[in-house]
Write a structure and sequence with these properties.
The chain contains 21 helices and no strands. The protein is mainly α and 449 residues long. Helix 2 packs parallel to helix 5, helix 6 runs antiparallel to helix 7 and helix 6 packs across helix 19.
Amino acid sequence: MSTPTIDDPTAAVAEAAPVNTRGRVILASLIGTSIEFYDFYVYATAAVLVFPALFFPNTDPTTALLSSFAAFGAAFVARPIGSILFGHFGDRIGRKRTLVASLLTMGVATVLIGCLPTAQVPGWQFAAPAILVVLRFCQGLGLGGEWSGAALLATENAPKGRRAIYGTFPQLGAPIGFIIANVVFLVLSTTLDAEHFQAWGWRVPFLVSAVLVIVGLYVRFRLVETPAFQKVVEKGEVAKVPLASVFKTSWRPLILGTFIMLATYVLFYLMTTFTLTYGTAKTDAAVPGLGYSRNDFLIMLVVGCVFFGIFTLIAGPLAERFGRRNTLFWTTVGIVAFGLLFVPLFSAGFVGTMALLVIGFTLMGLTFGPMGSVLPELFPTNVRYTGSAISYNVASILGAAVAPFIAVALWQAANGSTALVGNYLSLMGLITLAALYISKDTRDVDYQS
C-alpha cells in the first residue's frame, strides 16, 4: 500500500470521518487568530514604544520611528506570499494541517524576536535590524496563511443560515489578541522602571507567545477536516495548482475582495498604530501630539478595543439579516464620515479622544466582523483558501502596510494636524464603497460548490 504524500489530497480523507463539534470549531478558529494577532500586535506596540531606540539608535527620533514602521511593513509584503504558500496546501491537503503550519511559522518567529540581540550590542549594529526584518517577514508569512484557514474552518462547518455568525469567531481573535498584547505591555511597564523595560522587559510578551502557541496547537491537532473540503476530495475536484486556477476562474472576486477589505485595514492600523504614536507624542515636540503617557494611552486603546470585540459579534447577525453587502456598505459610509471627524475629536481633550477611539473601534468591529464570511463566499471550495487569502493579504499591503507610514508623513506635513490623516481614511473608504457598489451579496451562495 502506498503512503499518502504531503501533496496527496487523499491523505485528508482518512482522518475526516468524524465531525467537528460546534464548540471545537469556535475554539479552534478563535484561539488561533487570537494567538496570531497577539503576536502581530506585540510587534506593532513594540515598533512604536521601544524598537526605534533599540534597533535604529543612530538616527534622529523621526527617522528611527519611520525605520521601525518600515520593518513593521515587511510582514505585509510577506503576507501575500504566505497566502499563496499556505493557500496552495490549504486547497490541496486540507485546512487542518495547513493551519497548524501557519501557527508554527508565526509563533517561532515571534519567540525568536524576543531572543534577538539589539543594535546596541557590540557587533550587532547592522545584523540586529536585518534579522528583525527577516523574522518580521516570517511573522507575515504565518499570518498570510492563518486568517483564511481560520475563516474557512468556521464557515465551512457552519449550519445553514449562520455562516456570517460563525465567521465572526475568527474575527474576534483580532480584538482579543490586541487586548492581551497591550495588557501584557501595561503590566510590564507599570511593574518595571523605564530602564529595565528597555533593557529586557519588552522581550517578555514575545517569549510568552511560546505558551500560547502550544495551547493553540493542542486545540488544532484535535480537529478533523471540514465537510466542504471532504466533498471536493470525494468528487476528485481538488485543484492541482490552486493559484493558477483562482486567477483563471475567479480573477474578478480577487479584485473585488481586495478593495472591499481596503478601508477595514486602513481604519484598523490608524486606530492602533498611528493613534498610539500621535497620542503619546509630546505637545511641545517639533511635530506635536497629544502628550499622553504611554500607559494612559494604552489603557484608552484597550477600552476602545472592547467596543471592537462587541461590535464584531454584533456584525454577524446583522450580516445574516440584512446581507453582507448592505451591512458593509453602510458601515463604510460611516468610515468615510468618521475620517472627517479626526480634527474636531482630537481637539476636544480627553473626552474627544476617547470618543474617537470608541467610534473608530465600533466601526472596525462592524466592518471586520462580516469579512470572515464575505471573502470566502466569493470563491468556489477548491480555490477558496487561496482566493480569500490573496484578497485579504493584498489588501493588507494596499491598506495596512503603508497606513502607519503614510499617516506619520501626513501628520508631519500638516505640522501636527490630523486633518490629512482623516482625509486619507475617507478616501480609502470611498474606494471600498465603489467595490461594494459593483459587487453582489453573497449571503445565499452555494457554499459547497
